[in-house]
Amino acid sequence: MPPLPLLLLLLSVGAFLPRTAPKSTIEPCSNADSCSALVGYTLYTDLKVSELFLKIPISCACVDGIRKSSSVTYKTRPADTLASISAAVYGGIVSPDQINDANPKAELSDPSVIAVGTQLNIPLPCTCFNNSDNNLPAVYMSYVVKDVDTLSGIAARYATTVSDLMNVNALASAEIKDGDILAIPLSACASNFPKYASDYGLVVPNGSYAITASHCVQCSCGPGSRNLYCQPASLAVSCSSMQCRYSNLMVGNVTAQQSSGGCNVTSCSYSGFVNGSIASTLSTYLQPRCPGSQQFPPLIAPPTALPDSYLSPAPSPSEAGGIPSTNPKSSVVPSSGAVFGLPPASGPTGSTLGASGASSLMNQVTSFPVMLMLGLIIKFVCSMPL
């Protein structure tokens, strides 16, 4: 055993050595292009008796040479600290130091004391990789590893392979640990809209859908498919014409007629949102078999209630992305632009009264009649002759 002075010296030197940090996929970039991406993380109740897995669509931009979100903001609430925002609101996908570095003008000299209502930029990690994986369309999800995760389990859950995850994340081995942030490629359907369309480059993850063309068109990527199918959105109002020229077919309509040479198929396809109008293309072709009915992804509604301690934990970014999960404990909180599902009732961005605020207000309203009745009963009892 080394002498005590030497041991103390070693301990003091070790205190200044860099600590091992969780791995995180970093994609260098050198342009202003952005893409649709996802972040996935787990939130727990206070006693960790239940969990909620969220997949949040974000716009992944190039900021200071690295891919990260640039439009996600959070307005602080009472008792917020950088540590609580990192862990309880964003599930550890962004660290307190990263939030601090992204907000040099927010006067966060003491991360444990933050003024209520402070607007913070949240630099969520994300990756684009040209929206492709092995030369096939893909959307990348930034995923926070849990202590029970294995790389093979993650690969099986998201229909990819261990070798692909290792290549994407530059892993030397399949060993991962709690808190690591991995980029997971999700199979997707890609559009072929022209570059002058406002929704050019739309990519929809497999098993989900997107709302585009000013909320008029819904584009689906069915289970096990790579063919994007677009049709009028169910809640479409005040939309431009969706009828294909020189036909009576609407966007999404397909007719098929069997013949001796195969199947004659005529389709009216959505071709992008151009100058405020819905572009469509009429095509007729012959194929060996007539197409079956279009498969639509199962949709899971956003949660109607969250634990009060989370205070609407999901950001409200403005771009497309999102993928409904097949896990019953999972939910998607969609965005408000080209979206997956309906926008959430509230979110950190610009929201001053979250779920707990509404709850406490309702408790006050409902408790008033009870207190009034209790007071009348006490007054009546006291007035009775003994």
UniProtKB/TrEMBL annotation:
<feature type="domain" description="LysM">
    <location>
        <begin position="72"/>
        <end position="122"/>
    </location>
</feature>
<keyword id="KW-0732">Signal</keyword>
<dbReference type="InterPro" id="IPR036779">
    <property type="entry name" value="LysM_dom_sf"/>
</dbReference>
<dbReference type="InterPro" id="IPR018392">
    <property type="entry name" value="LysM"/>
</dbReference>
<feature type="domain" description="LysM">
    <location>
        <begin position="141"/>
        <end position="184"/>
    </location>
</feature>
<feature type="region of interest" description="Disordered">
    <location>
        <begin position="311"/>
        <end position="330"/>
    </location>
</feature>
<dbReference type="Pfam" id="PF01476">
    <property type="entry name" value="LysM"/>
</dbReference>
<protein>
    <submittedName>
        <fullName>Lysm domain GPI-anchored protein 1</fullName>
    </submittedName>
</protein>
<feature type="signal peptide">
    <location>
        <begin position="1"/>
        <end position="22"/>
    </location>
</feature>
